[in-house]
Amino acid sequence: MERTTRELLGAATRHSGPHCAVLALVGVAATGAGLLLPVALGRALDLLLAHAPATRWVLCCAGLVLLLTLLDAVETVLAGTVDARSTAFLRRRVTGHALAVGPRLTLRIGSGDLVARLVGNAAQAGTSPAARAALLAALAGPVGGVVALALIDPWLAAVFLAGAPVLTLLLRGLARDTSACVADYQRVQGRIAAALTEAVAGVRTIRAAGTADRDTARVLRPLPELGRAGRRMWHVQGRAAAQAVAVAPLLHLGVVAVAGLLLARHRLTAGDVLAASRYAVLATGVGVLVGRLSGLVRARTAADRLGEVLAHPAPGYGERRLPPDAPGRLELRGVTARRGGRAVLDGVDLVVPGGTTLAVVGRSGSGKSLLAALAGRLADPDAGEILLDGVPLPALSRAELRAAVAHAFDRPVLLGTTVEDTIGLGLRRPSPARVRAAARTARADDFVRRLPAGYATPCAEAPHSGGEAQRLGLARAFAHGGRLLVLDDALSSLDTVTEHQVTEAVFGRAATGTRLVVAHRATTAARADAVAWLDGGRVRAVGTHAQLWRERGYRAVFGAGGERGPADAAGARG
User: Fold this and answer.
1) Prediction pTM value
2) What whole-number distance in Å separates Cα of residue 133 and Cα of residue 143?
3) Does residue 567 have a pLDDT over 60?
């Protein structure tokens, strides 16, 4: 995990490398100007006390102050730019990886916590490159101050260095304690985000049940823990700042006292004492270091949470292509898939001949949707292999696999700017004719044309019911094409007439390619060339709907009674 975090922050720093280099140079230049200013002030004071011309040194001081102001403004702009670039880079990197890993990631982390990491933690981690670049200047100030004290008189540097170990211990303790507190704080934030996302997704259920107050309390239950973690975090930083405030003035007073003794012995001038006082302030600049160090610790802790996402391996792809004229034969060999420590599918062997339709039926929890996801490699099995036209799915290139397999789901997510974009999602060059033909096949063309701007209507402004959303999802799958079409309960929200029309397109003679359909209705299963009956994670039987209907357990899948009645016989014939 630590290695992943280092690599992630290193990549973010390299992404903004030139900006970070300029930021570091500007910071060092500002520190250099700040180190020159006490010399100029001291020299001007000595000349003024001696009633000698001091105009040049006064102008030098004014120029240094102006330069410091300018460099501070440039540093602020550069730091903001680097933060924004680094945050955008981290979000792209982690979001791309999360999408590549797929649904299994949200099962382990949770969608709400994942969003919290991509939004809040990525922004915090994105401050690391700029903070690391500015740290050089923050360190250069104290080091330069000590060197300047030594140049004025070695005794001044010796007095300061006598107390420097105490400051070092303060900074070390701050880094250790802050890291633990920030990690606790961010973990609790993730839990609240996860609970909030769950509540937003189920807002209709919550309103219908009248449990808004109870669910609000559930979402906010971790708030006291979050408050305690936040107070611990600020307590650690406040304690470190208070200790630094207690130690730094003592060192400053020690340097000024020794400088005063040297002035009394005529080894230093009044200007030297002024410069020594300023350099002592720079050398004890623990406040700046505490701020920089705290920022780095928070950024590193946030990057650790992003690293946990990247630690989940994304599926790899090969370079093979499918045989050009193959019919789309799908084969599962000894496929086992586990979820939550349980084998949802256990040793499944299944063959779908090319150009045919297979309906997958079974009770809830039998693994139907997981089998559909495995068939199109939206997930990978824990054991066994899946082949399309004789080629293992992991051996195919990403482009080849996605061009060969189309999916439609029970609750499709309608992505894209407009309705036309939604239907053409994933196509390299979606033509309007292809989009409209797919919409007609899915019986979505009529209601789309009734929208305010037709196919150009923004998705966010397009009212649609569950059945209309499913039709748009089906249209997207039909527009995609390919040799394998996977429908995961994608007909469940359609009315009877529309379902009959769509199933004609899926199961009829004009249908092309291989179709794998997760079915919950007997009428849908009856239209398929064959039915695979899943029971307890295994394929209990494969045959036509009419053949399997003779089994009492199969009829029970559709809620039919144990004895065959007239309706059952009609369903079997259908």
Assistant:
1) 0.73
2) 16
3) no
